[in-house]
Amino acid sequence: MVTETSKKTALADRMKTVCCCQILGAVIFAIGLAVGIVIGLFVNHGQNRIFQSHNIVSMERQVSQCPTRNPIIHLDYESSIFAPLTIREMIQVAQILLKQSIILSLNEPTRLTQNFITSMYLHPPTKAIALAYLDNGGPSVGRYAKVHVQRGSASPPDIMEYKVGPLGDNKANITQLTKEGDIHFNSRPYEKVEITNLKNAIAKDMNILAPLIAESFDGAMYPRDLTAFFFNGAAGFRAEERDTRFVIGFWGFKNKVDLFHLLPLSGTIHSPGTDTSRWYTHMFYYLNQGPYRNASELMESYRHNKIRKIKLPDGYRDTTRDRIFPKRDERKPLRNFSHRPGSRSYEPDGARYTVAGSKIRWMGWEFDISAGQMRGVSLFDIRFKRERIIYELSSSETVVTYANDDSAQNGIIYTDASFGLLSGHPIMILRDVDCPQYATILNTTYWSSATQKPGQYQSICIFEADGQEPLWRHNDYSFAAGLRNRYLVVRVPTAVGNYDYIFEYHFYLDGKLYTTVSATGYIHTTFWDVQSPHMGSDKTKTPFGYRVSDYSMGAIHDHTFGFKVDMDVISMSNTFKVIKWRAGNILDAFRTQVNIQEQPPYFAYNQTRYIEWETLQQEREMQLSYDDQTFWIVVNDKEKNKWGVERGYQIAPLKTAAQTLTEAHPAMRALSFTKYHCAVTKRKEDEQHLTSTYDINRLENPKGHLDLMLDNESIIDQDLVTWVTVGFLHVPTSEDVPMTTKVATGFLLKPFNFFDNTASFDMPEYYESADHKDYTHEPEAEACHEAKYRKFCKYC
């Protein structure tokens, strides 16, 4: 018999079972729902990915590679009167000199008693002949070469300069440009034959000093681990002298000395003439202690502990390359997103400039490119909208002067035109570093004094740049308008020793021309001697620079760049005017033009700004001053714009440095151009450059410097040359190791009443009215992929 209690228990059990089933069902439903959602999302995401991938593929199929347009019409340099010499022309010149017995062989020279060619480049035509040909259909002027020949076999030996041409003609002849003996043999620039003999001259001394070298410099041996550097400033104050200072340093890149790891061991080689048996070494220094008459005397003092010593730590010489080699430090992590490609520009519809021989044309600009291995690149016959503005714009000289407390390197002066501003390196253009991939590359030639053969390297790149900014803009209540700033770039990277220079010319749509030059590369240091008696209590710096590495001090120096700017504003009849920015009382302002006695009553107070004008009557030099600010203008008094104002161009140096050396410095006569920011002279055919390439080794009597040109000739309505000098000071710091990042200076040539209005309004611009009913824009490009690397160059 079932009791009441048993029935209640059974009912409770059934209710529990039902509840559990309901809960389980709810859980299963929830799980199923969640799984379904996840599956749905996954499927949907996959479909979206497939859809997106399909769209991307479709877009890639629809978007083609951007069209390319070869800007080079032809590269026949020999048909141009300004183009650089070609290899064929250089070979012809050498054969002519060989035939006339000016040189006796074209084999690699090995003795100083030989005659051989040291450099060769285009000898431009005289300006009068060139303009007759360009403007009036005159006869072809022909092409000529200027050649420098080192005549070691002459009695006495000397350097000669010749003009050879016309080239490509069986009637080519040779003209002497200098007299025999005029350029003393000892004032020549250094070259490979002499360097080889200089190394031979110190070989015996290095053997004598071998124990000192090994103990001081981490077991180093000469020449296995060390080499000598001989380019330590002027070789002589008089042309007849030649004393070459040398300093020892570790081997650097390839077969050159490491100028960052120079060591405190130096001497001097008395090295005049061609008889190397009479050369001798003297004035040895170790840690600036000396001079010792010879290596044996220095070694004797070292052995007997009569001088201070230095001992580099073990393994030091194995670490020198790591300090200066310009490769990413793999010990440091990459910056975020640096593995992704950076932003870049490209040509969406092909090049908008053309290259015909040496003639470049772009957006109303046209000019010829020329180049020579000593002075670098020149631009000739620069015109804008068919009117000539400049006959010649060229780099003329680059000077670097150092200061440091070092036995071999104090007072170093480099005139880079003596070494060659465009002498060639195996890789001249670093594509996608120096210039964008779409740039056009042109080549220049140089003559190798070491091999007596011509060489040719990629030297010049040309491209249209996008400034990614407005050239002009205005935003008003009723409209907005502007023009994007695009400009043509001619860029010339080059290397002279440890420094790299980048010369650039920018041509703008409004008629401006911007010339700039930058310096980069690695710094030239001296040995950091922390125990030097000249070292104060501060062991981080000296009067000559900061410590930048374990045993290296960055020597202070400056970079000065001189340019020739032969302005022809409409014609050769030009005048130079100085506009002076003034501040003063009202009557002073009015009296610059009219003599009035009373101040007009409507001026709120008796102070104002105003300008006054000065027309330069005679040749003059000028310097920039914050206390006396001026505008420098070249004008054509006979040519007026629509408003009756003489048409002209302004010369505006950008941020630059001033020469701080005084007239007492022995180099200031030879480098007189560095004293001025601008000088104006009457143009002469025999005043082609700011310096002579030989004056650095004959400082007592320089033959070709700017002060000689400034002889007070009249410059009113004359053919003028303006010599523009810019530069910067460099105090090397730790941020310059291993490489100095680019530092730039330059100057601007700017229209000054040259046009009737803004010169860029013949270009399609952006314009939009406030009500959006009126809208224009520049030509839009079709969507396309950036074109890959092009070979729009010859011999690339």
From TrEMBL:
Residues 345-759 form the Copper amine oxidase catalytic domain. Its cofactor is Cu cation. GO terms for molecular function: copper ion binding; primary methylamine oxidase activity; quinone binding. Topaquinone (TPQ) is generated by copper-dependent autoxidation of a specific tyrosyl residue. This is Amine oxidase. Contains 1 topaquinone per subunit. It comes from Potamilus streckersoni. The chain crosses the membrane at residues 21-43. The lineage of its organism: Eukaryota, Metazoa, Spiralia, Lophotrochozoa, Mollusca.
